[in-house]
Amino acid sequence: MSRRDLIILVVLIAFAIAFPYMGVPRYLLTSALVMFCFATVVTQWNLVFGVAGIFSLGQLAIFAIGAYTTAVMGRYLDMNVWYTFPIAGLAGVGLSLLVGLATLRMKGVYVALLTIAIAQMMFVLIQTDTACSELNRIINPQTCISFTGGSQGLGDFGSFGWREVLGGRDAVRGDYYTMLGLLVVGVLVSFFIINSRIGLGFKALRDNPELAASRGISQFKYQLIVFGVSAFLTAVAGSFYAAKFKAVGPGILGFDLLLLLIAMLVVGGLGRAWGPLLGALVITIFREGVDNIMTEGLQWRDVIFGGIVAAVMIFMPEGLTGTLDRLWNYILIKLGFAKARSSTVTAVAQDKKAND
Amino acid sequence: MNFFLQIIVSGLTLGAMYSLSAVGLSLVWGSFNMLNMAHGAIMTLGAYFVIIWFDSMGMTLWLAAPFALICAAIAGVILYFISAHWMLTKRAFDTNIMIATIGISIALQTGLLKAFGGEPYAQPLSLRSYSFMVNDVPVSYQRLVIWATALILMVGVGIFLSRTNFGRAVRATAQNRDAAQLMGVRVRRVYVAVLALASVLAAVSGIMLSSMKELMPLMGGEPLLKAFIVIILAGLGNVTGALYAAILVGLLEAAVQVLVGAQYGFPAILIFVILVLIWKPAGLFGRRTVARQ
Amino acid sequence: MSSETKKPLLACRNLFKHFGALAAVNNIDIDVYPGDVLGIGGPNGAGKTTFIDVISGINPASSGTVSLDGHDITNYGPDRICHRGMARTYQLNAGFDSLSVRDNVLVGAAFGSGDQGIPKFRYSKEMMARVDYALELVGMQDRGHLIAREVPVLDRKLLMLASAIATEPKLLLIDEPVGGLTPHEIDHVMEILRGLMKEGITIILIEHVMRFLLQLSTRVLIMHHGESIYEGAPDQLLADQQVVEVYLGEGTAKRLRHLMDQGAK
Q1: By the 8 A CB rule, do A268 and A42 touch?
Q2: Residue of A188, A194, A210, A214 to mutate, interface with C, max C Cβ within 10 Å
Q3: CA proximity to C59, closest of C116, C15, C114, C105
Q4: 3-class secondary-structure state, position A317
C-alpha cells in the first residue's frame, strides 16, 4: 500500500467515524451502512473478477448463504447472531470453494453462466420451499412457515443488539459502526492481497493463464484461494445484512441487487484497489440523489441505472478509478514526479520537448 | 399413457418456444461472441409491440404482428449500434458486452414497466381458448400454431444460413472473423443483420410465450435463462444443437412438471445444466475443441 | 562435445502427440545434455512448437515419456514442470499485459523457482535480486517501470526471456526468439543467448532463421511431419540431402555453407 493510499484511507475512515455526529438525518445513516455492507461485498468480488479475472456472478449466492446461515441458526438454534458470523463466513467459503472447483476448467462467460445458474437455483429452491417445517411449529404452532421461509423470508432471529446497549435512539449508530468496521476490514484485506505476492499470482492468471502456468503458478491452487478468501467476508456481509434488517428473503438473490453490485464494481473500476469503494460511494450518492429529486423515482431510477452500467462498460471499461489513475499519472509526469509508464507517452513527451 | 401424451404435447410446445429464442441467442454468440443478456427484454418488447400496434394504433392483428417483428428487428439494430459497435475492438469484449447488455436489459424492462404498468395484459394474438381432444388430452389450436411457426421459422433460418450468400457470410464470419474479413465479408454488416434476425426470432418467441401465459414487463427473465440453458447444453454457438437441446429441455421440463410437480420444472433443468456444465463445459453436442495454435 | 558420459538433462522416449488422425509429434526420441544448445528447425507445421508444448506440459503427450534430470515429468502440468527447472517462451509475444515489465519478471522469480508450498504474501530479497539479474541479462534494467502492453516487439521478446530466466531454469525452451526482427536486432538477441550459455543454462531453441540456429546450436534436430529427419552436429546438416530437399532448398543451403565457412575462418 503506497503512502498516498494510506493517507486517503485514514482520512476516509476519520470522516466515516465522524459522519454520524455531523447532524445527518437517520435515514442517511441507514443508507450509508447499507452502502458499507455492499461495498464490502464488492471489495471481495473485485478480488475474484477484477484481480483474478474470473467472471463469477456467484457472489450473491455467497452473500445469501451468509444471510440465511445467520437467520437459520439464530432462529432455530437460538444462537446470538454475533456467534453466527464466523459460521456464516465458513459456510460461504465452503460454497465458494465448490463453485471454484466447478468452474476450474471454464473460461470467461461460461463461468458467468454457471454462477448465474447456481444463484438462480438457490433462488428457485428457496421460493418453492413451501412445506411447513416442524421447527417453525415449535416456535409458533399456529403458523405454517417452511424451513427457509420460502418467498416470505425468515425473521425473528435476533439482531446486533445495539438497541439494548445504546438505547433505541442510538441503535442505528451501533449498526453504522459495525458495518463500518466490516468495510474497513474488507478494504484492508483487499488492499493487502492486491499488493501481495498472492495478488501478483492472481493478476498473472488473469492476464495470461497459459504463461502464468508456465511460470509456475498453479491455476488450481490460486483459483481456489481467491474463491475461498473472497468468500469469507462476503458471507459475513450477508450475515451482517440479515442481522441489521432482522429479516432475509430470496430477494437478495435477485437481479436488482446483482445489478446494483455490478454497477458499483464497474463504475468504480475493475481490478483496482480503490474501485469498489469509489464505485459504492458514487452509486449510493447517485441513488440517494435520484430518490430525493424524483418523487416517483423508483422505476426510472433503474432505467437510468441500467443505462449507466451499459455506458460505463461501453465507453469507460476501466471505470472511474481507471480514468482518475490516468489523470493522476499524467499530472505526476507533467510535474516531473514520475517516469512515464509507457513508451508511447515517453515518445510524446520527447516530441514535446523537442518542440519546446 | 395420457401422462405421456401430456408431456409430449406440452414439452414440444415449450421446446418450440425455447428453440426460437435459443437459436437467435446462439447465432449471435456464434457470430461474434456476444452473449446478449438483453435478448429476454427484446422478447418482451416484441410481444408488447403487438399490443402497441393492435390496441393503441388500432391495426388488425394480421398487420400488427408483422409490424411488431419489424420493430423488433429495428430494436436489434439499435442494440448493435449502442453497444457492440463501440466495443468490438476493445479488450475483454465477451465479458464487457455481457455486463453492458445486463444494464441495457434492466433499463428496457423497467422502461416497459413504467410505460405499461405491472398488470398483465392478455396477448390478443392467441387461439388459446380453442382446442381439440387427442385421447382425452386437450390440445389447443394455439399449440398447433406455435409448432407450425417454429417449424417454418427454423426451416427458414436453416435455408437462409445454408443456401443464401448472406447466410454463407454469417457462417464464414462465425468460423473465422479475420479470414472472412480478408475474403471481403463486411463483418460488421453481418453482426447487425444477425442481431436483427435474432431479435425477430426473440420477438416471435415472446409473442408465443405471452399467448400461452400472459404479457408482463418482467416476463423475459425466466425465458432468457432457459434460452441460456438451452444454448449451454448445445454448446455455445452450436445453432443446430440449440434446436435439439431446446426440444430436450422442453420435454424434460414438461416431464418433471407432470410427474413431480409444476414448481419443480425449472429447478430440475437448472440442476441438469449445472451438472452438464461441470461435466462437459463444451455442451452435450459440442465437439471438444483441440487447443492448438 | 564428449557429453556421452554425462547423464542427460532432458530425455524424451518415443514421444507421440496425436490430434485426431494427425501425429503432430511422431516418435521423437532425444537426449539433451547439460550445456547443450539443441536447435530445432523444420518447415511450418512440422510439429516443432507442439513438441515444445508437450515437453513443457502445456499439451500432454499422447504416449511416450519425458524426464527432466532423471525425474519423470510426462504427466506434470506446466507449473510443476517449471518448478523442476524447465522454463519456456512463446512464439507469440506472450506477456502479462497489464503489469509492469518488472512485475512480469517478478512473476517468474516469485512463483517459478521450486514448489511454493503454501502461497506466501511477501517477496524475498533473493527474488528481487533475481529480477534485477534477469532484467540486466537482457538489458532492460532501465525499462522496468513500463507497462508490458506498451513496449515494442523486441522488448516484449526479451521480457518473455527475462521472466523465464528469473525462474532459475536448468533448461530453457525458446520458441522463435527472433521471428520478425531486423538483422541488427537478431544479433542483439544472439549476444544475449550467448550470455545465457555462458551461465551454464541448457537451451532448446526453435528458429526459422537458419543463420541464427546454426551459429548458436551445438546440436540440431530437423523435424518434418512430426518426425525427426536429422539429428546431429550443425556443420553436417548442410550435407544432408533430405534436409536440403524438404526444408532448406538448394539456394539457402549454398548461402549457409558460405556463411559457415566464413564463421570457421
Answers
A1: yes
A2: A214
A3: C15
A4: coil
Instruction: Please list every residue in chain A whose beta carbon sits closer than 8 Å to the beta carbon of residue C77.
Output: 213, 218
pLDDT number for residue A104: 85
Domains of chain C: 8-85+170-265 (3.40.50.300), 94-168 (no CATH)
Q: What's residue A354's pLDDT?
A: 40
Q: Give the chains touching C; criterion: ≥3 Cβ pairs < 8 Å.
A: A, B
The range of the structural domain enclosing residue B11 comes to 2-220
Q: Report yes or no: C49 at the B interface, CB cutoff 8 Å.
A: yes
Between chain A and chain C, the number of residue pairs with CB atoms below 8 A apart is: 110
Cβ pair A310:B103 closer than 8 A? yes
For B293, which of C19, C20, C49 is closest by C-beta distance? C49
Which chain B residue is nearest to residue C97, measuring alpha carbons? B91
- In this model, does residue A350 exceed pLDDT 60? no
Distance between alpha carbon C122 and the CA centroid of its chain, in Å? 30
Determine how many CB atoms are found less than 10 A away from the CB of residue B133: 8
Decide if A300 touches B, using CB distance below 8 A.
yes
B179 neighbors B172 (Cβ within 8 angstroms): yes
What would the mean pLDDT of A100-125 be, rounded to a whole number? 88
**How many domains does chain B divide into?**
1
- What pLDDT score was predicted for residue A267? 93
% of chain B exceeding 90 in pLDDT: 23
Q: What average pLDDT is seen over chain A?
A: 87
Dihedral pair phi/psi, residue B8, rounded to 5°: -65, -50
Cα–Cα distance measured from residue A314 to residue A267, given in angstroms and rounded to the nearest whole number: 11
B44 in A contact zone (CB under 8 Å): no
pLDDT value at position A353? 39
Chains contacting A (3+ CB pairs below 8 angstroms): B, C
> What mean pLDDT comes out for the span A329-334?
84
Spell out which residues of chain B touch residue C92, defining contact as CB-CB under 8 Å.
Answer: 293
Q: Whole-angstrom Cα distance, residue A88 to residue A233?
A: 9
Q: List CB contacts (< 8 A) between B231 and chain A.
A: none
Q: Does B207 touch chain A (CB under 8 A)?
A: no
B290 part of a folded domain: no
Residue A342 above 60 pLDDT? no
Most confident of A278-282, B209-213, B276-280: A278-282
Domain-located, residue B250:
no
Closest CA to A37 of A230, A234, A216: A234
Residues on chain C touching B290 (C-beta within 8 angstroms):
19-20
ipTM of the complex: 0.91
Closest CA to B26 of B170, B217, B166, B231: B231
CA–CA gap between residue A224 and residue C241 (Å, rounded) = 54
**Residue B178, min C-alpha distance to chain C (Å):** 17
Are the beta carbons of A343 and C146 separated by less than 8 Å? Answer: yes
DSSP conformation letters of B44-73: HHHHHHHHIIIIIT---HHHHHHHHHHHHH
* A-chain residues near B222 (CB < 8 A): none
Does residue B293 lie in a domain region?
no
A295 band by pLDDT with thresholds 50, 70 and 90 = low
Domain assignment present for B76? yes
Minimal CA separation from B251 to chain C, in Å = 35
